Amino acid sequence: MKTYRNMKQLERDLKISSLERDIAYEELKALGEEYKTIFTPAHWVQTGLSLASKYGVFMLFKKIIK
What we know:
mainly alpha
């Protein structure tokens, strides 16, 4: 446990703790928004179409090579 010699040190550490808490809260909010974007149906459809097109191109090259 830290011992403070004056109120100025205490107030400074309290301000730092408050700012760190605010930063952590904002990071959590941003992370929540990111997860909302990732789990939307439109994102899943886009990912599915991307995978299907890659698989289709792979199969096309496979047929061309044979």
